[in-house]
Automatic annotation (TrEMBL):
Family statement: Belongs to the LysR transcriptional regulatory family.
Keywords, comma-separated and alphabetical: DNA-binding, Transcription, Transcription regulation
Protein name, entry field: LysR family transcriptional regulator
Domain HTH lysR-type as annotated: residue spans: 1-58
Length: 290
């Protein structure tokens, strides 16, 4: 069974057209069509229902598509891992951390990585979508992001590390501080101060009224002045709560605070090198998440 024929089949399914798959492969449509026909004969199934000039994925094709996608994905990993084994040990690793994941969560891990002999680090901050794009395009080696909705990543290796708590806080002078327990309606009547990227806006907040701050120090200053409420990492506000500059609020929908889960992702084959394996182990063992 020819690998290129399988790749052509997957391309035809993804593009919805054998001619489009042929163009991407730089082959003639008749040649790609023959490859797919040969596969159907060899395997005894029809991947497409053909009616005139119209070609649609058959029921058998729909059932086999997940296996085809998985198999070719595993083959890509095999090739990437083999290429990594052929290389020497890395001397530079690039690590991307999602904006607004607290520094304290990974300070011990980064300190451990810096102890690895003859390994240089480049650490940067970026939005989650760009970080994943960087990883898939080979522009970075490791990324740390808030856990996505993806059940299983197929383009890189990953593991779930844990979570940190975000606590609901405001000034003791703010009207919300007078309530023993809050609901969503209570929050919607006041301004939410959000730590985030000003270029993305706040589409999923708890209030239609908000202030968006890229700098957490400015946000906390506004909190102290009683200008709103905020969900912030517990470690960033615990001292302020103890000093009574801020108060911790109870809410019926998140009684123990919001859990922000974090995952570690790395390029295929990284752990086949000794240094790469040490770095991933450091993040798994030395983080400060729960």
């Amino acid at each position: 069974m020819n690998l290129l024929h399988l790749q052509a089949l997957l391309l035809a399914i993804e593009t919805g057209s054998i001619s489009a798959a042929a163009r991407q492969l730089g082959k003639k449509q008749s040649q790609v069509s023959q490859w797919i026909s040969d596969l159907e004969i060899d395997l005894g199934v029809s991947f497409f229902d053909r009616s005139g000039n119209k070609t649609t994925l058959s029921q058998d094709g729909e059932k086999l598509l997940p296996y085809l996608t998985h198999s070719l994905g595993q083959l890509d990993k095999f090739v990437q891992n083999a290429q990594e084994l052929a290389k020497s040990e890395p001397t530079i690793l690039r690590i991307g951390m999602e904006n607004y994941i607290p520094d304290f969560a990974f300070t011990p891990a980064l300190a451990a990585v810096l102890d690895i002999v003859n390994l240089n680090l480049e650490v940067y901050r970026e939005e989650a979508g760009q970080l994943e794009k960087d990883l898939c395009e080979g522009l970075t080696d490791i990324i740390l992001t808030h856990e996505s909705d993806t059940i299983h990543h197929t383009r890189f290796d990953y593991c779930r590390l844990g979570y940190y708590h975000e606590e609901l806080v405001c000034s003791p002078r703010h009207p919300l501080a007078e309530s023993s327990s809050l609901n969503l309606q209570d929050l919607s009547e006041h301004s939410e101060l959000v730590w985030g990227d000003v270029s993305h806006g706040d589409e999923n907040g708890f209030s239609p009224h908000y202030g968006l701050f890229a700098d957490i120090n400015i946000l906390i200053a506004m909190l102290k002045l009683g200008k709103g409420f905020a969900f912030l990492p517990r470690e960033y506000v615990s001292t302020l709560v103890m000093d009574k500059q801020l108060v911790s609020l109870n809410c019926d929908f998140e009684p123990v605070g919001i859990k922000r889960k974090v995952e570690l992702c790395w390029r295929n084959g990284l752990t086949l090198s000794k240094k790469g394996s040490k770095v991933i182990d450091a993040f798994k063992q030395e983080h400060s998440l729960i």
